[in-house]
Amino acid sequence: MLLPQVKETVKDLLRFRSVVTLVGFAPFKTAVAALENINSISEGIITEDLKIFLDSCLPESTKQEIVILGVADPKLGVNINEALGIKCDHLNAVPEIIRGIRFHFHNLVKGFTPQTSTVSQLGLGHSYSRAKVKFNVNRVDNMIIQSISLLDQLDKDINTFSMRLREWYGYHFPELVKIDAEIFAERIISLTDYRRKMSSYLGSKMSSVAPNLATLIGDQVGARLIAHAGSLTNLAKAPSSTLQILGAEKALFRALKSRGKSNTPKYGLLFHSTFIGRAIAKDKGRIARFLANKCSLASRIDCFGEIQTSIFGEKLRQQVEERLEFFTSGKEPKKNIDAMREALEETRQMLAEQAAVKKKSDKRKRSDVLENGLKKENGHAVNGEADTSLPKKKKKKSKGTTDK
């Protein structure tokens, strides 16, 4: 068939059905299975579901009739030919036929409507795109930036209102004005409660987005670093020297403008960390440089790591503690490579334990499903509900008894 004729045939459903016949259709059981298959097929990898489908639906080639499989991706066609020995084609009329199948899919398969087909394709497309760009909706750092900004604003407002209430309460007013002061005090208390809730929300978001950075330096300082950098990705891409002076840009440019007359700042937002406050004056710059290095490592692990864990942050925090002790007592701290090896080993153990727990829970779910299925089969339906009670055994008549 010529290509122009195929294009005209694709537009009309009746003509397309006369050319294309549905032989087999295997729907995916879950959205996870669909995502795994589309990820593998996009890279040219043949999945087990695809092998089973081709073996069951595709007829074997004979001398009289050669079977050719039409594919959209030439890379996938080459792999199918090498693995299964099936001849594939992606040229000529194949793209137009595939386009027609997509266009008339809801008419070819029973039980499908354009709405359900669009919804399923849209959901799978979002999941596929999210997996491709390594985007996780639970790890969006925009909410952290907004939360820490709102938290800072609440701190300023609560402080201002509390000072105003203190001055207001210090003067003598009649009872009517006293009622107004009490209403204002209740408003400040509600703002303080909201600030407490916002702080806990920020902590939960930091534990899901940047657990290692939050464990190392704290929720609020880590959130301020992310907000100042613009995003967790920008913070991870920045060198540790830039991270060290984040928040002290004015002092830095003032020092550069003076051409050596004043010293450059040693720290910016890192000053709010407890490690800087615990160090003596001469060691503050050294511990700030070391802490910035560890914060840079933690942010990169959080941003580009696929495993969500705070083990690395705990090890990095332990290294900073050992460095502080080294500055005071001279005790040799642990090397970074040894600490990272310990963190990797603990992470492997954690993943193994999680896999064992998941396997155990899946096994329990399967046994529960089987048990419920057997109960439904053995139970008697009474008023639309299954009777789970055991059937009573009939009493056997004794040989000596006779009916009267």
UniProtKB/TrEMBL annotation:
Keyword Nucleus: yes
Compositional bias per record (Basic and acidic residues), positions renumbered to this chain: 365-379
Annotated GO biological process: ribosome biogenesis
A matching Pfam family: NOP5NT
Annotated localization: Nucleus, Nucleolus
Ranges of compositional bias, category Basic residues: 391-404
Gene3D superfamilies associated with the record: 1.10.287.4070, Nop domain
Nop domain location: 209-329
GO annotation, cellular component aspect: box C/D methylation guide snoRNP complex; small-subunit processome
UniProt keyword terms in alphabetical order: Nucleus, Ribosome biogenesis
Residue numbers spanned by region Disordered: 353-404
One Gene Ontology MF term: snoRNA binding
Principal subcellular localization: nucleus
Family: Belongs to the NOP5/NOP56 family.
Protein name (Swiss-Prot/TrEMBL): Nucleolar protein 56
Protein source organism: Ooceraea biroi (Clonal raider ant)
Lineage, highest ranks first: Eukaryota, Metazoa, Ecdysozoa, Arthropoda, Hexapoda
